[in-house]
Amino acid sequence: MTSAISNLNLGMIGNGTVSALIDECAAMVWACFPTFDGDPAFCSLLQPKIADSGKFEVVLEGFSHGTQRYLDNSAVLSTQLVANDGSSIEVRDFAPRYKQFGRVFHPMGFVRSVRPLSGTPKVRIRMRPLSGYAERIPERRSGSNHVRYLLGETVLRVTTDASLPMLLEEVPFLLDREIHFIIGEDE
Predict the structure, then answer these.
(1) CA-CA distance, 162 to 15, in Å (whole number)?
(2) Domain boundaries, the chain
(3) How far apart are the first and last CA of the chain?
(4) Angle CA(91)–CA(96)–CA(99) in degrees, nearest 5?
(5) Is the separation of the CB atoms in 67 and 43 below 8 Å?
(6) Could you give the CA distance from residue 172 to residue 59 in angstroms, rounded to a whole number?
(7) Distance CA 36, CA 16 (A)
(8) What's the CA gap between 87 and 65, in Å, rounded?
(9) pLDDT of amino acid 8
(10) Separation of alpha carbons 1 and 134, rounded Å
């Protein structure tokens, strides 16, 4: 994988409050918070000054190629990544939107799940948002199962059932079960 985007074949997810663009390598390369016109925390699409930042990506070791499609009759984006050794994973992304208390609820957030499909895939999770319109790396604080990024007025929270040290230190690990990330506003 390269840091520059070689094409603009991007999948889009959104719910009326936020949206994101995701490339064929399962990198979230554009998303603004807390709304469409907010500060772009994920902005690697524009190649920010701070190298290799502004994205949330799942890196498959030995990456060969990726494909994207939307699940039938849904707004769920499925990105399949295949490694040179034949191992593969699926990354599913969507922005929740549902009825609650008689109203449509569309929170500021995304859901990402990563699951093994074949072989013994080794992955690295890289969460590298930026703040101040791509001018600085935000302060980061972690809890038992979440990481908070202070983006100025907005605090972005990533809650996960994956190993937190693997996320914080970007350590590669064998993906032997499905893992999930809920990205949203810390309230």
Answers:
(1) 25
(2) 11-185
(3) 35
(4) 150
(5) no
(6) 9
(7) 9
(8) 11
(9) 82
(10) 21
